[in-house]
Amino acid sequence: MKTAVISATGLWTPPHSISNEELVKSYNAWADSWNVAYAAEIGAGTVDPKTHSSVEFIEKASGIKSRFVIDKEGIIDPETMAPRIDERPNDQISVMAEMAVLAARDALERAGRKPEDIDAVICAASNMQRAYPAMAVEIQNALGCGGFAFDMNVACSSATFGIQTAADFIRSGSARSVLMVNPEICSGHLNFTDRDSHFIFGDVATAVLVEEESIAPAGHWKILGTKLKTEFSNNIRNNFGFLNRAAPEGIGAPDKLFMQEGRKVFREVVPMVANMIAEHLGELGLQGSDLRRMWLHQANANMNRLIASKVLGHEATEDESPTVLDTYANTSSAGSIIAFHKHSGDLKPGEKGLICSFGAGYSAGSVFVEKTA
Ligand code: COA
C-alpha cells in the first residue's frame, strides 16, 4: 500500500469583512421594522415581537468577532438581509468554482506542482451551487487538470472526508496527486433574519493537495491515519434542494436555509468527537500528549476548548489548539483547514498533529499527520 501525504494547502479569503457590530446593527434595524409591520398581531398577542441581537452575546456564546463574505452590502442592508450574488451566464466560470480555483492555485504553487500533474479533483463542501455538472469538473477544467473530478458533501466534515477519499485513491494506486478543494459560500445558506444563528457563518475557500509520498515535495505532512464517523441527526439541517425551492428573495422560506438546535448540537457532538479522537489515537498507538497541535473544526470556541481538554487532559493553549473562528466565523468544512494552513509552519520534523472536523449529519472526521524534514 502506498503512503499518502499532504504536500501543501491553499487559502482564498474574500475581500469583505463584517464585524459583529455591523451585523447586529442591521439585524436590529430589520427586527424593528418587522415589529412595526406586525404591530397589530404583536398587540393582539398572536405573534411575539423580535428582540434585539447583541454583540456581547455573540462573542461570549461563540467566540466569533467578524466574518469574511463574498458580498457585504446585501447582508447588512436591512431591506435585503442576504448576499447579493449575481447569477452568471453558463459561459462564465461559477462563483464557487472561481474561489476554489484561487485556493487551488495557492496550494499548487506552494507544492511546485502544475495543474497537468493532478490526477483527480474533489470538490468537498456543504452546499453546491447547482446540481450538475459537478463543480469539481468545472474546477478541473478551469485549472487545466487531467484525470477525473467529482463533488462530495458531508457538510462541515466535507474536508476530512475529502482527505480520506483522496488518501484512499493514493493508497490503492488509482491516483498519485489529488487536489481536494472546499469552496464555502456559507452566507448563501444562512438566514440573516434568525437571531439565534445570523452570526454563525462566513465565506472562504481552501485547498489540500494529497499525494503519494514518493513524489511529494520536502517538508510534507505524512498522513498517519484517517477515521470517519456519521450518526443521523436532524439537529443541523438545510432543506434547500431542487424539489423544494427557496423563496426568490433572501427573506422567507427559513427551512430552506441553515437551521440548528445549537444547544443540542453542542451537547451531543462534543462527546461524539472526543470519543472518536480517543479511539483513533488508540488505534494508531498514540496518546493525547503525543500531539503538538490540534487544528479543530471552527464552529464554537467553547466547544473546541472542551474537546481539546478531553483529548490533551488539560486546558489547551492557543498554541495547542489555534482559533481562526474569531475573524473567519464558522466556514463549515474549511475551518480546520484554514487553522492548519495558517498555524502549521512552525512544527518541526517528527511533530504530530490532528486535523478534525465535525458537523451536520452528524458527521466527524479525524486526520492525524506528522511533519517530515
Ligand atoms: N443575541 C442575544 N441573545 C441571543 C442571541 C443573539 N443573537 N441568540 C440567542 N440569544 C439568547 C437566547 O434567546 C437565549 O435566551 P434565554 O435564555 O432568555 O432563552 C440565550 O441567548 C441562550 O441561547 P442559546 O441558543 O441556548 O445559546 P448558546 O449558549 O447555546 O449559544 C450557539 C448558541 C449557537 C452559539 C451554540 O449553541 C453553538 O455554537 N452550538 C454548536 C453549534 C455548532 O457546532 N453547529 C454546527 C454548525 S455547522
Considering the chains and any ligands shown, give keywords for the structure:
11 helices, binds coenzyme A, 373 residues, Peroxisomal Thiolase, Chain A, domain 1, 9-stranded mixed beta sheet, single chain, alpha+beta, two-stranded antiparallel sheet
Describe this structure in words.
The protein is an alpha+beta fold. It has a domain at 221-371: 3-Layer(aba) Sandwich (Peroxisomal Thiolase, Chain A, domain 1). It is 33% helix and 22% strand. The chain has eleven helices and 13 strands. The chain has a nine-stranded mixed beta sheet, with helices on both faces. A two-stranded antiparallel sheet has the order 2-3. A two-stranded antiparallel sheet has the order 9-10. Helix 6 (135-143) links the parallel strand 4 (120-124) and strand 5 (148-152). The mean pLDDT is 95. Coenzyme A binds next to helix 3 and helix 8.
Number of helices: 11
Topology pattern, helix = H, strand = E:
EEHHHEHHEHEHEEEEEHEHHHEE
User: Unreliable segments (pLDDT under 50, ≥5 consecutive)?
Assistant: none
Report the average pLDDT across residues.
95
CATH class of the domain at 221-371: Alpha Beta
For the biggest sheet, the summary is: 9 strands, mixed
Number of strands: 13
**Multimeric status of the protein:** single chain
CATH topology of the domain at 221-371: Peroxisomal Thiolase, Chain A, domain 1
The secondary structure category is alpha+beta
**Which descriptor suits the 3D outline?**
globular
Percent helix, as a range, is 25-40%
CATH superfamily of the domain at 221-371: Thiolase/Chalcone synthase
Question: Distance between the terminal alpha carbons, to the nearest Å?
Answer: 22 Å
